Amino acid sequence: MDESRRDFLKKFGFALLSVGGGFPLLRTIASASEKELRTGAAVSTQWGMVIDIQKCLSEQVRRACIEACNREHNVPEIPDPEEEVKWIWSETYEDAFPEGIHPYTADYLKGKPVLVLCNHCTNPPCVKVCPTQATWKREEDGIVMMDMHRCIGCRYCIAGCPYGARSFNWRDPRPYIKGDLTPFPTRAKGVVEKCNFCAERLRKGQEPACVAAVKNIPGMEGALTFGDLYDPNSEVSRVLRENHTICRKVSLGTGPNVFYIV
Amino acid sequence: MNDKSKSIVGLVIFLALVIFPVLYNFAVGGAGPRPELELPEGESRCVEDKDFMTAHHMDLLLEWRDAVVRQGKKNYTSQAFGEIYEMSLTGTCMNCHTKRETFCTRCHDYADVDNDCWGCHVEPEGQ
Amino acid sequence: MLEQAFQGTKRYWTLVGFWVLVIVAGTAAFSHQLIKGLTVTGMSRDVAWGLYISQFTFLVGVAASAVMVVLPYYLHNYKKFGRMVILGEFLAVSAVVMCALFIFVDLGQPRRVLNVLLYPTLNSVMFWDSVVLMGYLVLNLVIGFVTFDAERKGAPPSTWIKPLIYLSIPWAISIHTVTAFLYSGLAARPFWMTAILAPRFLASAFASGPSLLIILALILRKYTRFDPGKEAIQKLGTIVAYAMVVNLFFVLVELFTALYSDLPHHMHHFEYLFMGLHGKSTLAPWMWVSGLLTVAAVVLLVIPKVRKQENLLAIICLAVIVSIWIEKGMGLIVTGFIPSPLGGITEYTPTGPEITITIGVYGIGFLILTLLYKIVVSVREKTEQIR
């Protein structure tokens, strides 16, 4: 669509808005498109991650990531797969990238495990559907956050997420947390949770737990790269410029901020 | 319809139920003794003055919660003393008030107000 | 008027007592769920919504269908619905109450339900759905009582009620449209993301709701001296016939688009629904029953001779209700989650506590309906004696 036409559509939208005399739904649509215009100016940071699929074929790497995350966030290990809580975990390449497979997909990818987590989408569908703003996209750094105090547990966000990144606490998670509790608050039964890009660590100037965990494994530098996508000098921006990367289900327009080097 | 007597009986029962708690407290001589709260040793004040904290600690905690979780902020400047504190229940509050049983719980039990902070928030080690 | 609900025959009190027992059982199961969490249900990581949300969806349809008696009566002055219209409005009241309760029991944190109003979120369809449902409840309560009270006194209702009645017509359409938008706006769930969902919801609502109303009217005629009218029942039968034909047509349109286009991620859901996937096919037999009942009902409904026999009509109506209850309830909601976005196939079967809670909510709805209908019947019996 060329610029002038888009501009016209936007103006037309605002005209409709004034005719509608503040019909609130139109107003939200309008404010959403306004936000689109400001992207890059108002949002100073957009945290993002690049995952190197081949390096993460190493079981050791994936286990280190998952364990570091589970420990950092007191993620319970519930044996019943129907009630599992997962922040970062492995899926097969086919299930993670259903659009990226065909009968002749390379052997090194076919059926191989890929680390998946919340994509902290630029246009998150889970945020759009939440009736209480218990999940929202933080303006300052682009993290899709969860407010566990506000969530009513309706699970609309689970229905809305195309990546299966959200978990519901079907039961009290505390008895299923391995080892001693770490300072991160555990969750009450009946709320939804997911990866928060380690907002609590970023606040203290530390990298996310999974990224930090792989740094200690020799030869696995760059398995996970984390940083500010809006900063052209950041490591993550450099990796993205220099490699061919893919995202999960790009056709849905959610704008994932987790990228994969195949 | 003429159910005057029934209505009066009903009203009397209703009133009796409503004023029962007040009468009960008169009968047993007012509320029970105020609980003794154990205050941190070696500290002279909290992040705000005592009256404010007694009356509004929950408001302050809610404000901190929203500032940290929703706005991604870190520090709080005391309005009474101008000092800067990190906004953290387990990091800042419980750094001084180390025993919740003799502080939080004791008063909350007395006031019969539920607090479910500890269902999720993890108390610092060694308590 | 209201006092009529507190005086009645032994049979009336037995019925009330029965509902109370059902409610007590449901409440007990609900407190169990409150303590243990939603783990007591059959829902899971993959199938996040189940029996509760299915019932919610089905009952929004029942509520919306009141418009099928309100519209002919008030817009087309179809006098034969004079005794039926209040039954439709009060059925809507009880259905909306059940809808709200089904959402409530489905929440992980029911104590926080008011957050929906404390933090109104205009971009969430769920917010709008709760607004239109509550509005619809108020509209039907007010319209129902005001018009009925006027009729009791033998006077025309106050003029201010007219605009509310006209408002309630598009409002009824809106509650089911917005409920369809809950699902059809999700790119993550191809099974639901179809523009025909809202029209389908309305068509199936206008078949199942009036069917229920016919059965209720027949029950009232059998056990009370109040007769909603043979012609009114027949007219409802015609409405059910048309709605059911349109419903079947919409389903076939949906099936054609999905099957002929052959898009894998759309197809998988339909495969699961009718055949099962990877040997998992719990829902398939239900769907075949629903399909057969739909076809049988359509065939019988379009034959006027069959439809005109009230006993047969009652059976057909029951078939319509069951088939739509399966298709629009479990079939539609659960299949949206199977397969999951990650390709997983987790089946869903409701558990004992879940079913008990569901029946308990129906108990509350039917208790409300019993009380409201009792008032209608008693008042009508009296006024008709005087005249």
What are the defining features of this structure?
heterotrimer; B: 127 residues; mainly alpha; two-stranded antiparallel sheet; 4 helices; 2 strands; 5% strand; C: 387 residues; Formate dehydrogenase/DMSO reductase fold; 73% helix
* Total beta-strand segments of chain A: 10
In terms of DSSP E residues, the strand content of chain B is: under 5%
Shape of chain B: elongated
Instruction: Write down the domain tally of chain A.
Output: 2
Report the end-to-end length of chain A measured between terminal Cα atoms: 31 Å
Largest interface: A-C, 50 and 47 residues
By helix and strand content of chain A, what is the structural category?
alpha+beta
Strand order, main sheet of chain B: write it out: 1-2
> Largest sheet of chain A, order of strands side by side?
8-1-10-9
Description of the molecule:
The complex is a heterotrimer of chains A (262), B (127) and C (387). Helix content of chain A is 30%, strand content 14%. Chain A has helices at 3-19, 24-38, 59-72, 93-96, 125-129, 156-160, 199-202, 209-215, 235-242; strands spanning 47-52, 88-92, 113-117, 135-137, 144-146, 167-168, 192-193, 224-228, 245-246, 258-261. In chain A, strand 4 and strand 5 form a beta hairpin. The longest helix of chain A is centred in the first third of the chain and has 17 residues, at 3-19. The model of chain A is unreliable at 12-42 (pLDDT under 50). Chain B is 50% helix and 5% strand. In chain B, strand 1 (75-77) and strand 2 (84-86) form a beta hairpin. The mean pLDDT of chain B is 86. Chain C has a single domain, classed as Formate dehydrogenase/DMSO reductase fold, CATH 1.20.1630.10. Helices cover 73% and strands 0% of the residues of chain C. Chain C has helices spanning 10-36, 51-64, 67-75, 85-106, 115-118, 125-152, 161-184, 197-223, 230-261, 264-274, 284-301, 304-307, 310-335, 352-386. Classes of the chains: A alpha+beta (262), B mainly alpha (127), C mainly alpha (387). The interface between A and C is large, with 50 and 47 residues.
